[in-house]
Specification:
The chain is an all-alpha fold. It has one domain (3-224, 237-494). 72% of the residues lie in helices and 1% in strands. The chain has 22 helices and two strands. The protein has helices at residues 2-14, 17-35, 41-52, 57-82, 93-102, 106-139, 144-160, 166-181, 206-220, 244-266, 272-286, 299-314, 316-321, 328-339, 348-351, 353-374, 378-384, 389-408, 412-429, 435-457, 464-467, 469-494, and strands at residues 183-184, 191-192. The chain has a two-stranded antiparallel sheet. Strand 1 (183-184) and strand 2 form a beta hairpin. The longest helix has 34 residues, at 106-139. 52% of the residues are buried.
């Protein structure tokens, strides 16, 4: 009953003209950005972080969250229509979704994607409502020792599941930790690695770092220069409903994909991309006819679309209740909360309960907005994905520079974006992922603070991390995350 009353108060807060406007603006921009190949929710959130500094906390977080799960919806539009995924998590939708479009069933594919995304997102919101308060109450028993151990596991876990070399992912985490040490020491006030620049005393701006690595570098190094002419083809709105046989075949993949996505989304370091790939692989293994996957079967579209949208919603659980971002995009939203003076974590449910339930209510409203946008406006999205890249490039670069300059009216952060953007391009060229770097940058100072506090309370005794059951389990998991892959690689070389 307490949950229902809290949700009711959340709806009363979100159903104001101001919050409804920012919710609608967020999901619309998220769908638009997600539908444009090479952009994605990460870039949209990075671009709008400066704007949120001038908005109330509720409105800013509602808008950023709308961009995030709106991007997951929109990414499948270009994946289905022109075989170019708008977001990494929509890559799997190209396998069967685009084949359906080539067979003249683009409208059916878009309708199935939108409906599966809406229903799976709704299930993810219900799970958030049920489990977030429980996790929050459990985590209230956490001290500095437990916080450090849990953050360590989340950081190493995020690096271990990154695409490409794990060694390069760990290198990215190390770079993020180094960037996080720049500025004045929290305990002593000693300046560290400021290089004589007084602007670095307060540390590197999170907004500048995010816009450099995920805005400037993404645009400058993007390989998508033109959009296929297939985007100009007319998508019919009639005959959108799948056949009865397809409805029946979609039931199992939907629930399995939703369950898998909800579980993986709640685990730090996984997220929608991994969930969509695993859901597709799961359905292919369970199918009696695996050869039909990749030829335009609806199961191959419904399962990954359900998984990535369920994961997009449950990714907020560890971010809000534990203060540990599950994905790089969640790290940006976590940073936006911190900038607004809100500290996500176990105490958020007690100290900022109104904001939490307003955000939950906005998810319901936002998902409804997305269903309205994605089904009737299919023809509009088809035209938007045909915008030439040469027009997008200068507009986004200008937005990045103007946005970061407007925060402090200083050109210094523009140079920071240029430097981090060039570093981001070098990392892309050497296939070093940028997402672990951002997570290391955000979690690093928090881990340092809790590490110092733990050792001070234990008078320098490092075994304090093994005396707490939660901390001991997390330390064992952290060691296993690093050591087990090394053992597996060593055994493979022996064979």
């Amino acid at each position: 009953m307490d949950t229902l009353s809290s949700l009711q108060s959340g709806f009363m807060a979100v159903l104001t003209v101001q919050n409804l406007f920012y919710c609608f603006a967020g999901v619309t921009m998220g769908t638009f950005i997600g539908a444009l190949p090479g952009l994605g929710a990460m870039l949209g959130i990075a671009l709008l972080l400066p704007v949120t500094l001038y908005l109330p906390a509720e409105a800013s977080i509602i808008m950023l969250a709308g961009i995030y799960y709106g991007g997951e919806y929109g990414g499948s539009i270009s994946a289905i229509l022109i075989n170019v995924p708008g977001t990494p998590s929509s890559t799997v939708a190209t396998l069967d979704g685009h084949q359906m479009a080539r067979q003249g069933r683009a409208a059916v594919a878009l309708f199935a994607s939108a409906l599966a995304s809406f229903l799976a997102g709704s299930v993810g919101i219900v799970l958030m409502m049920l489990f977030s308060p429980i996790i929050g109450r459990f985590a209230l028993n956490f001290g500095s020792v437990e916080y450090f151990a849990v953050m360590l596991v989340g950081l190493l876990g995020a690096a271990s599941v990154s695409s490409g070399s794990r060694l390069k992912a760990y290198l990215a985490v190390l770079l993020g930790l180094i960037f996080g040490t720049i500025g004045a020491d929290v305990s002593t006030g000693t300046q560290r690695f400021t290089l004589g620049f007084p602007e670095f005393i307060s540390g590197i701006s999170l907004v500048a770092l995010a816009m450099g690595f995920f805005g400037f570098a993404e645009i400058v190094c993007a390989r998508t220069k033109t959009i296929s002419d297939k985007a100009q083809s007319r998508v019919r709105m009639r005959d959108m409903m799948p056949s009865r046989a397809e409805w029946r075949r979609s039931f199992g993949p939907f629930w399995r994909g939703t369950g898998l996505g909800a579980l993986l989304g709640a685990l730090p370091g996984t997220g929608p991309t991994i969930a969509s790939f695993m859901a597709y692989s799961q359905e292919k293994k369970l199918s009696r006819d695996p050869a039909k996957f990749g030829t335009g079967t609806i199961e191959g579209l419904v399962a990954p679309e359900s998984a990535n949208n369920a994961a997009a919603q449950t990714a907020f659980i560890p971010t809000l209740t534990l203060g540990i971002p599950g994905t790089a995009t969640m790290a940006l939203i976590l940073g936006a909360l911190i900038v607004q003076g809100i500290q996500p974590g176990p105490r958020m449910m007690a100290e900022n309960a109104d904001l939490f339930w307003t955000l939950i209510a906005s998810f319901w409203v936002g998902n409804l907005f997305l269903l309205v946008l994605n089904i009737p406006l299919v023809g509009l999205w088809v035209k938007l994905v045909s915008v030439p890249y040469r027009f997008l490039f200068p507009c986004i670069i200008c937005l990045i520079c103007v946005g970061i300059y407007s925060i402090e009216l200083s050109a210094f952060n523009v140079w920071v974006i240029l430097a981090t953007g060039l570093l981001g391009c070098a990392m892309r060229a050497t296939q070093i992922p940028a997402a672990p770097l951002l997570m290391g940058f955000i979690l690093g100072p928090l881990m340092e603070e809790n590490l110092k506090r733990s050792l001070q309370l234990a008078r320098g005794d490092a075994t304090v991390f093994l005396t707490s059951p939660i901390s001991a389990i997390c330390i064992v998991l952290a060691v296993a995350i690093v050591v087990l892959p090394l053992i597996g690689g060593w055994r493979a070389r022996l064979r």
